[in-house]
Amino acid sequence: MIEAIASDPAGEDETARSTGYADSVVPDMLIDRDADSLHPYAWMCYNFERTYPIVIWGLKLFMSDERFSVPQAGLTGVPIHVAFSWAYHHFVLQDGALLSDKELSIQTASQDYTHIALSHALATMA
Amino acid sequence: MAADQQPTFITVVDNAGHEKRQRVEYTVTDVRGEVVYITSGGLRYIRDSLWIKGRQRFLLDELDRIPNVISQPDIVIRDPGASDDTLIYYKRLYIESEHRHWLVAAVVKVRQGAKFLYNFHLQESGKVKGYHLDVPPEIWYLSPRQRKHAFGL
After folding, report:
1. What's the pLDDT score for residue A32?
2. B38, B8, B6, B152: which is closest to B106 by C-alpha?
3. Which of B55, B92, B120 to mutate to test the interface with A (most CBs of A within 10 A)?
4. Residue B135's domain spans which residues?
5. How far apart are the C-alpha atoms of B107 and A117, rounded to whole Å?
6. Interchain CB distance below 8 Å, A49 and B15
7. Closest partner CB to B124 (pick from A12, A20, A41)
8. Which residues contact B134 (CB under 8 A, 6 or more apart)?
9. How far apart are the C-alpha atoms of B142 and B110, rounded to whole Å?
10. Which residues of A touch B49 (CB under 8 A)?
């Protein structure tokens, strides 16, 4: 499972309300929105370890217009599919010791996380 | 409904196949008489997640209703993304602080035959996960007092 929550740099509006999680155009991905603006602020996949290829690809196709920063990853102003690709790279491939020492030693540019994640999907599908 | 104090530990296998020893905070007997483990790790994640999602923070005051959601749900579906190991228990609750009803979801994963609570969150009214799919999610349980179309199915 993965859940990503956007925080507003300007601070939290105490009166803001949620629509509740709902289906999106991306399979397995639920999105919660601000009840007034209907702007997404939280994304969740219950089965990201299985569905990550279609989730990452779907985010790239349908939701690449906004930019996010992921302080934990040192990423600034990246599309959401890069943030999810980093999460797969970090929490599944790295934590699961699925990368070789050589792969771990390579400095990864932000745009490469998607390439690595989707390449892993193709490699393990065969 | 049964929510028993059970100070014990259990080994949870996570999504990556790693074994993690977790304290069982309590167990709940679900609507079909099966035990669901509520672990300290699961509750910690739920609390952290609800706190960060400021718009859902009021659910922190409703965590003691999780046993009721699991034991007396309105509807339970198999997750269309993982029908073999994920059940989603939905119940419409009246939230006093909000002066309104909300549909809430308790996500339960099955690992090596044992059921664990993974998440607890708000769900958009009348629309369970996968309601719009050509092949709708399988209904695992439907309360006799409910109709499936009330959940988009």
Report:
1. 95
2. B38
3. B55
4. 3-151
5. 26
6. yes
7. A20
8. none
9. 20
10. 3, 5
Query: What pLDDT score was predicted for residue A74?
Result: 87
ipTM of the complex: 0.87
pLDDT in tens, A12-56: 677 788 899 999 999 999 999 998 889 899 999 999 888 999 999
**Any residues with CB less than 8 A from the CB of A126 and at least 6 apart, and which?**
none
Contact residues on chain B for A15, CB-CB shorter than 8 A: none
**Are B52 and A92 in contact (CB < 8 Å)?**
no
Residues from chain B contacting residue A26 (CB–CB below 8 Å) = none
Nearest to B127 among A17, A23, A50 (CB): A23
Counting beta carbons within 10 angstroms of the beta carbon of residue A75, is it exposed (0 to 12), middle (13 to 18) or buried (19 or more)? middle
Domain count along chain B: 1
Delimit the domains of chain A by residue range.
2-125
- Using CA atoms in the order B73, B79, B83, B87, what is the torsion angle rounded to 10 degrees? -30
What is the tens place of the pLDDT at every residue in A78-119? 999 999 999 888 888 877 666 666 666 666 666 688 888 888
pLDDT digits (tens, 9 = 90+) for B86-120: 999 999 999 999 999 999 999 999 988 889 999 99
Contact criterion met (CB < 8 Å) for A46 and B53? no
